[in-house]
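Note to self: user wants both folds in one dump. Writing first protein now.
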Amino acid sequence: MFTASTLLAAITADGPDSREIFDPATGELIGRAPVNTDADVDRAIDTAVAAQASWAGLSNDERVAILHRAADAVEANAEALVEILSREQGKPLNGPNARFEVGACVTWLRVTADTPLPVETVIDDGDTYAEMHYRPLGTVGAITPWNWPMMIAIWQIAPSLRMGNTVVQKPSEYTPLSGLALVHVLNTELPAGVLTAVSGGGELGARIVASERIDKIMFTGSTRTGKRIVEASSGNLKRLTLELGGNDAGIVLDDVDPKAIAEGLFWGAFINTGQTCAALKRLYVPNAIYDEVVAALAEFAANVPMGVGLSEENLLGPLQNQMQFDVVDRLVESAKASGARVVMGGTPDRDATGFFYPTTLVADIDPAAALVVEEQFGPALPIVRYTDLDEAVRLANALDVGLGGSVWSADKNRAREVAARITAGTVWINSHGSIHPAVPFGGAKQSGYGQEFGTAGLKSVSQPQVIQG
């Protein structure tokens, strides 16, 4: 078993080919991440391609058993991984944060390993017989973000390996230690070469995407980068799964108890301090209960502690980097200048250590305000008043993204009718952002394409093959 210090010692680097990584809450130096080169990427791809045939040659049961052992290794080293994750990403230990994330890695590994994908009989009518098989694609490039750097990595790695592919993974340059630590633990059980990782800036991801020896790209990140990946992937028409930006809308109906939904609304919006692609980022509330919903949400939010991640009592942490702090600060300042009402928060200490932005609720805001129509990706929720449900649905659908959405109502049938009118990959009823490893997840419009999780996720990293006759 590793401690956080021994695991960091195994993955960090010294010298000019490394970069200092600091805690976003305290500014303390955590360690030095390696900075790999294009040549390193090419060697990683060589290694993965060379290992793929033998990995695919194992039986499904053999690969499943290895993935379970990898899950056991993550579970055994959970606290070491949790500490590195909390210090580097900033998220607290408890609540839906660091321990939750590492636990989700274990769950996703096990469920993905055990999800059945049998041969399908397509037709058997006496004249024609055809079967659908799912074969490995080859080598998958997995490019992961900084907000959930371990969990999203597993979302990409686990199904790829299960189906007989090998993986070259590149963590975000903002959270390289979390990604490298996870891969190091997994590789205590995986065969050599099956999973390799490279660390560095976006140019390394671009090299992975452009390589004609990479057969599939899985990417979670911005729509802007996703579009560049589409363009760069044309060399060998590699398959893509893109989970891109979102600006999820929630619509509250007029039959709810505001106090009963306040906790769900809060965590739908503020999970991971708002740094979640499928978080609730704009809330539409009917005029009849608007003030009550705002008050109930503010009352709950006031009791959720924010602070340094390694302190057990905290449930919200800092923003992960200066760039994201500046985005949230700009959008809230713009809302204030436009006359919107700041119910709580909105006044960060810009001279303090750490990228802390206070929990912020903004009411009576114009539906066209920048804080509403741009993805803030932080702890600031705009709450829009509406009088006509059709108008609320129109506003929810007005943007060019559609990752998730939610409807909040005491009548689930009524909520489902409204949900069916929202253009998004997932629409939740009376919750927002909850995911399950067996339930497919993916975006609509410019929030990307391709699905993850469950049998749909396994198929997305496979080559369908029909055998007829």
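First done. Writing the second protein, which came from a different request thread.
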Amino acid sequence: MTNTWSATGRDRREFTRRDLTGAAVMVLCMALSVVAAPGAATKAAVAALGVGAELGMLLGRRILRPERAVYGVVLTIATGLAITLLAPNGLGEVPVLAGAAVLPLCVPAGPVRGAGVAVVAVGFGVAIMVISGSVTGLLAGVGAWFIADRTVEHAALQAERDRALALLAEVEATRLVRQEAAAVEERGRIAREMHDVLAHSLAGLSVQLQAVRVVAAREGAPPALTGPLDRAAELARDGVQEARAAVGALRAAPLRSADDLGALVGGFPGDARLRVTGRPGRLTPEAGHAVYRAVQEALTNAARYATGSPVEVNVAWDAGEVRVAVRDRGLPAGRAGSGVQGSGSGLRGMTERIGQAGGTVAAGPAPEGPGWRVTLRVPVAAPADAPARTGSDRAPDRGPGPGQAAGGAGGKMGV
């Protein structure tokens, strides 16, 4: 199985409050332009052009693919210029400036983008000069150029922020891996010390006590002396067995569990939320560790490929299995991917790990809306005695760090 994190499902976007506010403002401005237009025929023409301006913005921002979005933006700018000339007292300048703000996002950096912004700025300045009857109206073109320039700077700043956020997720993943490796190394050191000092000392003590017991029996020592010696030898033997068991437990690498998902989501350097429903069951240590690692990788990939999107982690327990879904909302409008790439084997590794625990993995575009969803299904070993949890949303506690909007993020394993 190959990793398909960059599938087209991540390109689908949903409307936000900001989008709806912008659309409402555009409709209001077009309505005022219709009112300000002279004559019934002109009003009808301005109304039609207003619909074209709104349609162009919708096409450019939501419907057309990124490489064709420029056509919708050009439609908005052209209709805005026409409304400005037909209704000088209206607000045709609004779609022109809105289009100028979006145009740099639809054209790759280079001479073509510069020429396009220059044409819009000059055209806007000429339109204002015509309706004002003054050459100084050409200065209005500076406003269009300034807005476009600010858009370019904001896009560059946003891209750097997204890349920093994705890299932070990678750094956090590496930090957790190193922290776990250091803990394993320290446990190994303690185990060696216990084996070399405590276990050997107890073994030697046991041998000496057994020798003393033999000598005491040969010399005809009374039971008042041999009895305590027998008990001491037995305690020494038990101590040796317990020391060996402790050494074995220390040498075994500690495993994460589903109970650690709260801390994982809480450490995500972005907007993430955990939701738990149902009565928690008991997973085997290997299954719990596999679930933790799978969620860790899914969060990391959300930071890479849907940077800036809120991420939802839903854990649903029932009598036979636990279902875990990690879903993002796709890239926010006008945003590009962080550019941080994984090795391409993360989904395959996730599937293998969950498969070894007896579970399954499904990954792909979210069927209920934009974004990407990873779903895990793992069988429950036995019902837990813990009280049932309600399904209320809860935002986990977070440590300090950048991007703490509501959660982005968690320690992650790169893919």
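Dump finished. Worth passing along: Residues 278 and 317 are 5 Å apart (CA to CA).
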